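User: quick one, sequence for these C-alpha cells?
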C-alpha cells in the first residue's frame, strides 16, 4: 500500500525501508550485511520518520523490525573508526560526543512518539538495538533472539541507552546486565521485562504480530495518544496536579467525539468507527 502523504513528500536514506498497510507503518532497519548495525545515517533516517509522522493521526502504530532475521546488532564499528579519524584531526573528542548524543536524541523521539511502537525482535538485539527495544511500547520476540549490552566488554559504556534500560527493567536488573555484559535469549528477556511475549518460531511471531495490531486498531486513536503521554508524565510529575489534569483530560475524552462514538458502539454492539479491520 502507498505511504501516507506526510511520508511520500520525504526521501529517506536506504538504511531504512518503509511499508504501510492502512494505519500501520513498518519501519525496517535495512543494513542486513551488518546485522542492521546502526550507522549515523540510519539514526538520522529514523529521526526523520518519527518527526514526519509526529502529527499524522492516520498512522496509529509503527512496527520496528530488522531485515534478514536480525533486529539490530548495535552501533556500526565502521562509523566509530571514521570518528576516530575526525577526533584526531580536530584534536578533540567532540565528534564522539556528537555521534553518541544523536543516538540518544533518536531514542527520545521513539520513546515519546504519539503512535504505539511495536518492536519485533529476532536474531541480534544488542547494544543500540537493545536500547531501541527498550523504548518500544510493545515488544515481541523469538525465543532464540540474542539480547545483550556488550559495551563494557568492548571498553565503552552504554551511555545513551542506560536511562531507557533502567526505566524498562529497573536498576537492579540493569546493573547486572550492563556490568556483566552477558548475552541471553528471549525467555530471559521476558523474565527481566525487556519484552512482553515470546514465541518459538517465525510463523508464531507473525500470528502474534497480527493479533497485537488488531488490538491496537480497537483502541481510539486520540485516546491512545493522550494515554501514552499521560503514562510518561507519571515518572516525572507530582501526583496531585497530575491527577487534576488527568481528570480534565478524562472529561474532555468522555464528552468528545471518540468518547461518544465508543459509548454508542458498545451499546449497539458494533465496532467503533476508528476500527481499522
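Assistant:
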Amino acid at each position: 500500500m502507498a505511504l501516507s502523504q506526510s511520508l511520500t513528500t520525504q526521501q529517506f536514506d536506504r538504511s531504512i525501508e518503509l511499508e504501510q498497510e492502512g494505519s500501520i507503518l513498518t519501519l525496517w532497519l535495512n543494513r542486513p550485511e551488518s546485522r542492521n548495525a546502526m550507522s549515523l545515517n540510519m539514526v538520522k533516517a529514523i529521526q526523520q520518520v518519527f518527526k514526519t509522522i509526529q502529527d499524522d493521526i492516520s498512522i496509529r502504530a509503527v512496527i520496528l523490525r530488522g531485515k534478514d532475521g536480525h533486529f539490530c546488532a548495535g552501533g556500526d564499528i565502521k562509523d566509530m573508526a571514521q570518528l576516530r579519524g575526525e577526533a584526531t584531526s580536530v584534536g578533540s573528542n567532540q565528534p564522539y560526543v556528537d555521534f553518541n548524543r544523536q543516538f540518544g536524541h533518536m531514542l527520545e523521539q521513539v520513546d515519546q512518539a504519539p503512535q504505539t511502537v511495536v518492536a519485533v525482535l529476532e536474531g541480534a538485539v544488542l547494544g543500540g538495538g537493545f536500547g531501541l527495544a527498550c523504548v518500544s511500547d510493545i515488544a515481541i520476540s523469538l525465543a532464540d533472539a540474542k539480547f545483550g549490552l556488550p559495551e563494557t566488554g568492548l571498553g565503552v559504556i552504554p551511555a545513551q541507552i542506560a536511562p531507557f534500560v533502567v526505566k524498562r527493567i529497573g536498576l537492579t536488573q540493569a546493573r547486572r546486565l550492563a556490568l556483566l555484559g552477558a548475552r541471553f535469549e528471549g525467555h530471559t528477556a521476558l523474565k527481566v521485562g525487556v519484552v512482553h511475549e515470546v514465541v518459538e518460531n517465525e510463523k508464531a511471531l507473525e500470528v502474534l504480530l497480527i493479533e497485537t495490531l488488531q488490538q491496537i486498531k480497537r483502541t481510539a486513536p486520540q485516546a491512545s495518544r493522550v494515554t501514552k503521554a499521560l503514562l510518561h508524565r507519571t515518572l516525572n510529575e507530582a501526583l496531585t496536579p497530575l491527577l487534576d489534569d488527568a481528570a480534565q483530560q478524562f472529561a474532555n475524552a468522555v464528552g468528545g467525539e471518540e468518547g461518544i462514538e465508543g459509548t454508542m458502539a458498545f451499546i449497539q454492539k458494533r465496532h467503533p468507527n476508528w476500527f481499522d479491520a
